[in-house]
Write a structure and sequence with these properties.
Elements lengths: L1 H32 L22 H12 L7 H4 L1 H32 L5 H10 L5 H14 L6 H24 L4 H9 L4 H12 L1 H16 L3 H6 L8 H7 L8 H21 L1 H12 L3
């Protein structure tokens, strides 16, 4: 039995190492490549550690707007920080609105009994079965017709429409894990239904609300399709769009693409690491009901 248990541990650890190498390995190579000259990327065998460490691409991205066109900094680098701020605004707005609206939409689905509740809940989730690509043309045409293309707020509402069903489904599952006796005690003490939500449900649901917000932020941060189709000027570009602009018909600046990509993934990775306790507890609590 001991030999079998030891063999099982070996298999588990080897599998974990392989998964880690397949996920973290490529990202570490990207980080290393961002500190190299472009000609070094073509070395065979690949150069895993930068020698020397080159900071030119990072300097162009973080100081490009200040250095200006006269310094020879690529146009994409000069507008990257602005697009980075746009991504923060869109993702942060979607996360905040999705959690706020999703909480009030999820509570009735979790606690109230009414005709068609199951159908409504299924319809909310089934709405995400429609591929976003199939809706791209009508959404873009409508946005242009009503004068809402090339606006940051349009990206907020479009992403919100795709993210909100996930948030509602996650939160209603989480609300079901909260003992109904706590709500009954609040009602006995004279709280209205809305006060019960504000004073009991929402404070107890902080892990679930946090995990839903982080999920909404991460999904929105990496969105590319509608950001590309609806952005016509640098004022509305997000970071994913600017990263793609480094590849042109004339040239592909690989080091700049890699550097911009590395910088772009820092916020979602940071959020995931800081709030991982809330994310895990929120997701597991909503999935272990019963």
């Amino acid at each position: 039995m001991k030999a079998r248990a030891r063999l099982r541990l070996i298999v588990i650890y080897l599998s974990a190492v392989l998964v880690l190498a397949g996920t973290v390995g490529p990202f570490l190579w990207l980080v290393s490549s961002s500190f190299q000259y472009e000609r070094q990327l073509l070395n065979r065998p690949p150069q895993w550690l930068p020698n020397p460490i080159v900071l030119d691409s990072y300097r162009e991205i973080f100081e490009g707007a200040v250095l200006g066109e006269a310094s020879g900094v690529p146009y994409q680098s000069r507008i990257f920080l602005r697009s980075f701020a746009n991504s923060f605004f869109v993702a942060g707005s979607v996360a905040a609105i999705a959690v706020l609206v999703g909480a009030y939409a999820a509570y009735p689905l979790a606690r109230l009994t009414f005709r068609g509740r199951s159908v409504l809940l299924f319809g909310i989730l089934a709405s995400r079965l429609i591929p976003a690509l199939s809706l791209a043309i009508p959404i873009v045409l409508v946005a242009k017709r009503i004068g809402m293309s090339d606006k940051i707020v349009t990206l907020v509402f479009i992403n919100l429409s795709f993210i909100l069903p996930y948030v509602i489904w996650l939160l209603q599952s989480y609300f079901k894990t909260i003992p109904i006796e706590l709500e009954d005690a609040g009602r006995i003490d004279g709280c209205s239904r809305l006060q019960v939500v504000h004073k009991i449900i929402l404070p107890l649901s902080l892990p679930g609300l946090t995990s839903a917000g982080i999920l909404a932020f991460l999904l929105t941060w990496g969105e590319f399709l509608f950001a590309l189709l609806l952005s016509e000027t640098p004022a509305s570009y997000t970071s994913t769009v600017v990263v793609s602009l480094f590849a042109t018909d004339v040239d592909v600046n690989f080091v700049s693409i890699i550097t911009a990509g590395v910088v772009s993934v820092i916020p979602p990775i940071g959020f995931a690491l800081v709030f991982q306790r809330f994310i895990i507890s929120g997701l597991l609590s909503g999935s272990l009901k019963g």
